[in-house]
Amino acid sequence: MTASPAPAAPAAPEDYVRVENLRRLFDVSRPWLNRVIERQPRQILRAVDGVSFTVAKGETFAVVGESGSGKSTVARMVVGLLPPSGGEVAIAGVSMTDPRQEAARRALRRRIQMIFQDPYASMNPRWRVDRIIAEPIRAFGLIEGERAIRARVGELLTLVGLHPDDGAKYPHAFSGGQRQRLAIARALASEAEFLVADEPTSALDVSVQAQILNLMRDLQDRLGLTYLFISHNLAVVRHMASRIGVMYLGRLVEIGGGRELFSAPKHPYTRMLLDAVPDIGRSGRQRMPVQGEIPNPISPPSGCTFHPRCPFANARCRAEVPPLADGVACHAVHEGRLAPGLAAAG
Amino acid sequence: MTDPVLSVRDLRVEFVTRRGVLTAIDGVSFDIARGEVLGVVGESGAGKSVTGAAVIGLIDPPGRIAGGEIRLGGERIDALPPERMRRVRGKRIGMIFQDPLTSLNPLYRVGRQIEETIRTHTDLSARAARQRAIDLLAEVGIPAPERRIDGFPHEFSGGMRQRVVIALALAAEPELIIADEPTTALDVSVQAQIIALLKRLGRDHGTAVMLITHDMGVIAEAADRVAVMYAGRIAEIGPVRAVVGEPLHPYAQGLMGAIPTLAHDADRLAQIPGAMPRLSAIPPGCAFNPRCPKVFARCRVDRPEPLAVGSHRVACHLYDASGKAAA
Q: Where is the ABC transporter domain (chain A) (predicted)?
């Protein structure tokens, strides 16, 4: 489903977003002179190392992982904020990396918008809200005439659950949840059809988080939006996504439908994560004690990067990187040593 | 039943500002027994951290404790002179904060910081203090403690640093540990380890733990009892299973419904309209009344007092003095 080796031809209509073998390296070496004096080699951080997935039109695909897994780097490459070191991103059949498709890409740009964890950081504090939301409308010349623009801004504010009169206020007059509503209104102002949301509710209180998650689902139903949803919170991801990819140290270790992934996880890391989450619905259950911590991504373990923490690792896991096949990158599952299921302890 | 380690009665904390006196904590009462973990949960502005700060005597001006009593092991500690309170804080109350680096001096080896705490509050020799520091690091799960004791804080990962802080909090064998969002900055896999550790240490040492967090999941895993705070008051307090499984206060009910869970599919999350009131504009009567789906006339006038309803105590007019839901 995702490991298709086909070349970057126009995507099938159901694959709105196609990401293939996406890679991003960061050079985290000390400065040149220090390296020469201290005889240190270059240090390369493989933040994203060969990630492939597709997102169908109108669906929510979530990428979940702990800090350092590379999930935000994937999000930034998909929207084009960060050039990939390798691989291919195609959205609505338009390649985001091929220089020959520059014109098509420019036409598509405004359809792709990003929502950040801290909406306040992305708003000019000296601008009134109506000017902030009208900016994409003016920049792309979507609507002519001040009165029509003002009407559209009022409509957008109503759409995200605010009042048209709120346009006269400044961003600081709004609470965190309301600012996230403003960020969504601004994203929709450019007639976006694909929203990349990077931890959109992580800074919000639970009751406010519920309001924003419900709003995002309502808007998806009404406008047919497609979401790429990045989060560390498994419960939020389960609530939002139809399909989920689990990342560990720059690689997708498991990918699948939300329901299967949560009821019958395959990869030992997914099992460990699901077991570790404190969850009000499952308190008092027996849990597998979590082993170890995420290794330093600059010098990741050989073979399968999860092997030092994995109770099922053998010699092959220590030597050979498992490919992503049948939705999971794990030798133990591929060899039939490990059956899917929640009972994780071996 | 033995006396509680910590007993808070009618605590009131005020902040004096140019615009008048703001009441951050208003009539909060609770006990924590030996070896018990009390979870204090609430959203931003509920007053949970201020409650913790009041117990350890760290309310800075313009804030002040304006009423009520705080007793530690039966002795009043809310009005001690600063020097005596400082000793209580180091010896009898341990503290764990969200960011372990705020509790650790970056210039000193972690061993020295733990030994210093041990030697200030006990009469152990330097040698014995070092051995005890190594034992503590081993107990909180730091591998090769005899080597790691000479490391600097920056040489530890986030989860390991939080373990060092827990060792530091335990160093003087306190009766009470106040943990304010101890796992919020950690990844889930590390968070689970720290929760398990806190729970085990509370049990093994008989330490009372006040666990302050916004994360209901953490409370459900770690706490024995839970207090749900709203606008500086306790809305509901009771055994964690009862409050999570069958909350009685409409705010607690809304809060539980708003939390996405792994256990089942919800098409929509429950939604509480509006937001927590500002301290300067806490509504009269029940503080939750403007957002409450079950509000009636009395809620807008009378402030509900906490009443025992089964194993819970609830401050809500829906329940009458007989402990039944009123019609």
A: 17-274
Q: Report CB contact under 8 Å: A283, B240.
A: yes
The distance of B16 to chain A (nearest Cα, Å) reads 23
Helix (H, G, I), strand (E, B) or coil at A304: coil
3-state SS, residue B180:
strand
Residue A34, number of CB atoms within 10 A of its CB: 11
Across the interface, whether the CB atoms of B260 and A235 are under 8 A apart is answered yes
Instruction: Count the neighbouring beta carbons within 10 Å of the beta carbon of residue A337.
Output: 12
- B8 three-state secondary structure: strand
Model confidence at A287, pLDDT cuts 50, 70, 90, reads low
Domain ranges of chain B: 100-173
| Contact between residue A85 and residue A24 where contact means Cβ atoms under 8 Å apart | yes
Where do the domains of chain A lie? Answer: 120-192
At residue B58's C-alpha, the angle toward residues B53 and B62, to 5°, is 100
- What's the confidence (pLDDT) of residue A4? 44
Residue B207 in tokens: 């330490």
What number of H helices and E strands is found in chain B? Answer: 10, 12
Distance separating alpha carbons of residues A306 and A310, to the nearest angstrom: 6
Instruction: Give the closest residue to B176 by CA, choosing from B202, B198, B194, B197.
Output: B202
How far, in Å, are B191, B233, B276 from residue B279 at the CA level? 32, 12, 9
Find out whether A206 and A239 touch, Cβ atoms under 8 Å. Answer: no
* Cβ pairs A/B, distance under 8 A: 122
Tens-place pLDDT, residues B175-234: 999 999 998 888 888 888 888 888 888 888 899 999 999 988 889 888 999 999 999 999
Closest-CA distance of chain B to residue A102, Å: 40
Residue with tokens 């591929």: A334
What is the 8-class DSSP label of residue B35? T
A205 and B214: CB-CB below 8 Å?
Answer: yes
A106 touches chain B (CB under 8 A): no
> Looking at residue B157, what is its pLDDT?
85
Number of Cβ within 10 Å of residue B86's Cβ equals 12
CB contact under 8 A, A280 and B217: yes
Residue A302 DSSP SS3 = coil
* Crossing angle of the two packed helices A176-189 and A146-159, in degrees rounded to 10: 130
- Taking alpha carbons only, the member of B127, B122, B103 closest to residue B113 is B103
Of the two residues A210 and B1, the one the predictor is more confident about is A210
- pLDDT per position as a tens digit, A78-95: 998 999 999 999 999 999
Identify which of B229, B216, B215, B219 has the alpha carbon closest to the alpha carbon of residue B276.
B229
Flag if A279 and B262 touch (Cβ within 8 Å): yes
B118 close to B133: Cβ distance less than 8 angstroms: yes
**For the whole model, what pTM was predicted?**
0.84
Q: Which of B191, B258, B263 sits opposite A206 (nearest CB)?
A: B258
